[in-house]
TrEMBL record:
InterPro entries: AtsK-like, TauD-like_sf, TauD/TfdA-like. Belongs to the TfdA dioxygenase family. One of its GO terms (molecular function) is dioxygenase activity. Residues 9-252 form the TauD/TfdA-like domain. PANTHER family: ALPHA-KETOGLUTARATE-DEPENDENT SULFONATE DIOXYGENASE. The lineage of its organism: Bacteria, Bacillati, Actinomycetota, Actinomycetes, Propionibacteriales. SUPFAM superfamilies: Clavaminate synthase-like (SSF51197). This is TauD/TfdA family dioxygenase. Keywords: Dioxygenase, Iron, Metal-binding, Oxidoreductase. It comes from Nocardioides lentus. It comes from the Bacteria.
Length: 260
């Protein structure tokens, strides 16, 4: 297994086949790479089907499914992300997956099923760097504060969590490094100790800083790509502008480490 570190985040891993679940040592290596670099790109997985993809994800904890999403037929732990049959492009803003629960999934992965002729990149932000480069006044203002994350866009049902508080500055459970932890502004309902207007202004400033162009990895999909990321260290968003052709991904999530 060979690795190539990318900037400003991410690592490309070659010489690894996901047709069978990786051994414990490889999983530990991948956990470390995800904690340090946020995103792992594994190209050349043309022979990986949903059975192998789901088995790979189970190496990283229990499967997590967002109630309200469209499942992959025959695979209740995976969901479909697709633009097929849509008259308008899907909407995507930088976010963390399912952060409105008390223990969000640690990891998300996408398997490329159909790649469009043009466009359709997935973008990732480095939330370690976002915190480290915050202006001093903003860093001081968020210390010790918590953010209330709420659900939008899906209906999780009566028996599911719909909101949760998480620290804005979060110690990563694997690396121990502090990271900025937020999500799309629509899901950022309240910052502890601030009123509604103050919350909105602070979240907007943090989100804009986090997603500045020089803090982003833009992954252009190729057939056979599997991309996995650490929801504790990155925000992500699909770029649906200018997409030509069908774009179909299968997504899975795993609990991983215990959330802070």
């Amino acid at each position: 297994m060979d690795t190539q570190v990318m900037e400003p985040l991410g690592v490309r891993v070659t010489g690894l086949s996901l047709t069978t679940p990786p051994d414990e040592g490889t999983v530990e290596t991948l956990v470390g790479l995800l904690a340090d670099h946020g995103v792992v790109v594994v190209p050349g997985q043309d022979d990986v089907d949903d059975t192998a993809f789901a088995a790979f994800l189970r190496c990283f904890g229990d499967p997590v499914f967002t109630v309200g999403e469209t499942p992959v037929p025959g695979f209740d732990d995976l969901n479909v992300i697709s633009n097929v049959g849509r008259t308008t492009p899907p909407r995507s803003t930088f976010h963390v997956d399912t952060s409105y629960v008390s223990s969000p999934p640690a990891y998300t992965a996408l398997r490329a099923v159909t790649i469009p002729e043009q466009g359709g990149q997935t973008q990732f932000s480095n939330q370690y760097r976002a915190l480290d480069t915050l202006p001093a006044d903003l860093r001081e203002r968020i210390e010790g504060r918590r953010l209330r994350h709420v659900v939008t866009g899906v209906d999780p049902g009566e028996d599911q969590e719909k909101e949760a508080w998480h620290p804005l500055v979060r110690a990563h459970p694997v690396s121990g490094r502090d990271t900025l932890y937020l999500t799309t502004p629509a899901r950022c309902a309240e910052v502890s100790g601030l009123d509604g207007d103050e919350t909105a202004a602070l979240v907007a400033a943090l989100h804009a800083h986090s997603t500045a162009p020089d803090n982003l990895l833009r992954h252009a999909w190729a057939p056979g790509d599997v991309v996995m990321w650490d929801n504790g260290t990155v925000l992500h968003a699909a770029d649906h502008s200018g997409v030509v052709g069908d774009r179909v991904m299968h997504r899975g999530m795993a609990t991983g480490y215990a959330s802070a």
